[in-house]
């Protein structure tokens, strides 16, 4: 599902969190929203998800105006850093949770959960509880849960933020691999330049609620459009 963000602005009180942002996200691509803390990345992601309504501008999904559509109607899956698994439910129950809500029949849920456990490579762990998994494995369960309903868009807000450096690195290449397999349009928030460069097809660099530059990692690295991008992306001296 392609996403068009058309001149969207959002302010909280007098603070302009997102200001006149326009971004075109191609169907099936893996896009990173990159910027320092407070630059409006999460707000933009929440606007795409329908968790916030823009003050002005439009959000289009597959070319159709979805600015006023509900979260459910947008068919988005999301993983937030602090969007924890249910502790008292098994891995299988966690992954199937949204399908229960959507009133899928038991055997169909079971088949879909098996598929997802294979997809995130957690075979044999379905009957465990979240506390019996590592941090990286838990994030893979959260991804499986987000993918359960076959969303048109997958939105990830610093999903690996709380994990240690080694696990983050493993999950990066793993996310790339997963994306190539499922091919769902994925928008991924990070403040980590290296993570964004390594994982994404396209980068949207944000600062103070505005888009500074959009392009492939190579384009942005080789031709930073603004002094901000140059200092934020450039090689560390
Ligand atoms: P980022 O994800 O890039 O760190 P955010 O989109 O979370 O940035 O937030 C940008 C700024 O907008 C924050 O510094 C915060 O002050 C403000 N903000 C975000 N959400 C709200 C809210 N619900 N109410 C008030 N202010 C908010
Ligand atoms: Mg954020």
UniProtKB/TrEMBL annotation:
Keywords: ATP-binding, Nucleotide-binding, Sulfate transport, Translocase, Transport. It is found in: Cell inner membrane. GO terms for cellular component: ATP-binding cassette (ABC) transporter complex. Residues 3-233 form the ABC transporter domain. One of its GO terms (molecular function) is ATP hydrolysis activity. It is a peripheral membrane protein. The keyword RNA-binding does not apply. Its EC number is 7.6.2.9. This is ABC-type quaternary amine transporter. The chain holds residues 1 to 237 of 337 of the full protein.
């Amino acid at each position: 599902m392609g996403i068009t963000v058309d001149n969207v602005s959002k302010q909280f009180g007098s603070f302009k969190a997102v200001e006149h942002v326009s971004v075109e996200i191609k169907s099936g691509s893996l896009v990173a929203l990159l910027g320092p803390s407070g630059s409006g990345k999460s707000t933009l992601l929440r606007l795409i998800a329908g968790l916030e309504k823009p003050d002005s501008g439009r959000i289009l999904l597959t070319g159709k105006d979805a600015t006023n559509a509900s979260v459910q109607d947008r068919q988005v899956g999301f993983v937030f850093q602090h969007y924890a698994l249910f502790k008292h439910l098994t891995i299988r129950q966690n992954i199937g949770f949204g399908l229960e809500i959507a009133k899928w029949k038991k055997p169909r849920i079971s088949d879909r959960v098996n598929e997802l456990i294979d997809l995130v490579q957690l075979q044999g762990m379905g009957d465990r509880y979240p506390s019996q998994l590592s941090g990286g494995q838990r994030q893979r369960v959260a991804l499986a849960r987000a993918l359960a309903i076959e969303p048109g868009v997958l939105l990830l807000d610093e999903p690996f933020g709380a994990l240690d450096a080694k696990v983050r690195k493993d999950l990066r290449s793993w996310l790339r691999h997963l994306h190539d397999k499922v091919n769902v349009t994925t928008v991924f928030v990070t403040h980590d330049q290296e993570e964004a460069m390594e994982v994404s097809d396209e980068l949207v660099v944000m600062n103070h609620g505005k888009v500074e530059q959009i392009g492939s990692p190579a384009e942005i690295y080789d031709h930073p459009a603004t002094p901000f991008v140059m200092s934020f992306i450039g090689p560390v001296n």
